[in-house]
Amino acid sequence: MVALTGVVALATGTLGAVASTASAHQAAATGTTERTSYAVLAKEGTDARALAQRLQQAGATVTSVNTDIGLVSVDSTRAGFAASARALSGVAAAAKDGVVGRSPDAGKVADRERAHEQDVAARTADHRDGRVDDKGPKGPKAPKADPLDSLLWGMDMINAPQAHRTEMGDRRVRVGIMDTGVDGSHPDLAANFDRRLSRNFTTDMPDIDGPCEYASCVDPADHDDNGHGTHVAGTIGAAMNGLGVSGVAPNVDLVNVRAGQDSGYFFLTPTVKALTYSGDVGIDVVNMSFYVDPWAYNCRGGAPEDTPEQAAEQDLIIQSMTRALNYAHRKGVTLVAALGNNNEDISNPRTDTSSPDYPGGTEHPRTIDNATCLDLPVEGPHVLGVSALGPSERKADYSNWATDLRSGEIEVSAPGGWYRDGLGTDTYRTNGNLILSTAPLNVMQDEGQVDADGNITPLGESLGTMKDCRVVKGHDHKGGQEVCGYYQYLQGTSMASPHAAGVAALAVSAHGRQQGRSGFGLAPDAVRAIVMGTATDHACPAGGVQSYTDVGRSDLYTATCVGTPRFNGFYGAGIVNAAGVVARGHGHAD
Questions:
Q1: Which of 70, 86, 180, 268 lies 20 to 30 Å from 460 when distance is taken between CA atoms?
Q2: Could you count the other beta carbons within 10 Å of the beta carbon of residue 184?
Q3: CB under 8 Å to 119, separation ≥6 — which residues?
Q4: Using CA atoms, how far apart are residues 56 and 62, in angstroms rounded to an integer?
Q5: How far is residue 91's CA from residue 86's CA, in Å, rounded to a whole number?
Q6: What DSSP state is assigned to residue 260?
């Protein structure tokens, strides 16, 4: 990790870029100009600032320069700008600054399976089909749980209550939430939310995000208009404060390093900035619950059906993301990512028919070669890939898996929720099978789940939306003010990844040490070894094949699991184990 000198300069240096990019996006949305945003990656050893000056002299408007990896962001009205930039000496890649990824839960409906599938609302989840018995180490009595913690079956699965007897997270450990934003005012997050370090690297785009809420089109760094990021943050580090829920590591420092649009899209430049910033300010763990969407797979040289310009865009994304992930790793950041919700063997991908889906209407069938195509960021270097499980510990039907166990596509598994789990029980197709976590009031109201007076609506009740309140006493300990938090159920590998990120944060907390002037921390490779080494082994299903036809899914969802209980394509090294990480640190759980 590094000292915090230079943080103010970094933040100040991005303000002009953000404003300029906002104007470009607004102009593009209204059709008043042909200005387009591009990203230009300098070759290794090339001075990015010098390259930026040459691009400016050529008529481009430079909006930002990331000297950490050599990425220059520009606007230009010139036709064929990208091709011209690629011809310049010192340029490794250049293309339109398109979407890098999108939160797989951005549209909400696909991951929750609520709008068209739910028959009966369920506000509790006390019945959990196939929940594992507590087998954590004996020790001090666990801290008193928060009011809704009994609904968090995922915490029981990863033995978080046992871990909390001796370790609830160190305030010096910083966890980056790289997502759609974090509601820093949520009463279950406010105590752990780091306003000083939190940053928003995005600019709202009216064509996909709707009207800007703020004049600059830049949301404050404690704001979330989507809800995805706030949900992720709660699973990792909601405070154990007598309200709502508690996270896997309820005492760690939460830093919003926002890279996702309100709509859930992730563009290249904000994502790279968020990664390099995380390394520069000493963040220990970053959760990345998003996956490449305009190009579900980025292919070196493009897929056979892609145009040369589309191929150039994918080359740019692969090279830039690789550099950014390597940079963050070198700076001490443990990288954790969702494996994806395409119910797909990512070692043997199907034909991609969804890419590119931004701008809309440009998608076309693409042949995906696993040797040259990457699902980013999860298949990038140094990233811990996380698959999703339901309450029964079965792989959720939507979760991706792997059959090439040598490729590093999957590392561990974690609770992600599965609406169709519990077949034959009263939990089948109920909200309780999903993951409950923190939700921004503004989003709940925009979606009609909570009314203007803060009351849960019939729609919210059907979706399992919850409200929990407590009275906060004044400084004189007399009287007090009622404070309420809101909570929603979601499912996805997006929900599994933060369980693993929280466990990684506990590993740093329990086994980290002072790193000279760099501060408290633990090397990412050591964190990786601890998390994977203590994961609870889980065998493949009997016969190695998991069918989901019994819960109404087609044969397209049938998945084949290969490997041993110690490591396989459904569970990786096993289910993350918070108690094991805290108690043992090294060695494999039996």
A1: 180
A2: 22
A3: 429
A4: 6
A5: 6
A6: B
Q: Is 550 exposed, middle or buried (0-12, 13-18, 19+ CB in 10 A)?
A: exposed
Q: How many residues does the chain have?
A: 590
Q: What's the start-to-end Cα distance of the chain, in Å? A: 33
Give the burial string for 113-131 (b: 16+ CB within 10 Å, else e).
bbeeebeebbbebebbbee
**Which of 349, 343, 382 minimizes the C-alpha distance to 546?**
343
Residue 560 CA to residue 508 CA, distance in Å, equals 34
Going residue by residue through the chain (590 aa), what tens digit of pLDDT does each one get?
333 222 222 222 232 333 334 444 444 444 434 789 999 999 999 999 999 999 999 999 999 999 999 999 999 999 999 999 999 999 999 999 978 878 876 554 343 443 333 332 322 222 222 222 233 334 466 687 999 999 999 999 999 999 999 999 999 999 999 999 999 999 999 999 999 999 999 999 999 999 999 989 999 999 999 999 999 999 999 999 999 999 999 999 999 999 999 999 999 999 999 999 999 999 999 999 996 557 889 999 999 999 999 999 999 999 999 999 999 999 999 999 999 999 999 999 999 999 997 888 899 999 999 999 999 999 999 999 999 999 999 999 999 999 999 989 999 999 999 999 999 999 999 999 999 999 999 999 999 999 999 999 999 999 999 999 999 876 655 668 899 999 999 999 999 999 999 999 999 999 999 887 778 999 999 999 999 999 999 999 999 999 999 999 999 999 999 999 999 999 999 999 999 999 974 433 33
Strand arrangement, sheet containing 36-42: 61-66, 71-76, 36-42, 91-96
Residue 226 and residue 262 in contact, taking contact as beta carbons nearer than 8 Å: yes
Could you tell me if 469 and 483 are in contact, meaning their C-beta atoms sit under 8 angstroms apart? yes
What backbone torsions phi and psi does residue 482 show, to the nearest 5 degrees? -80, 130
Amino acid letter for position 170: D
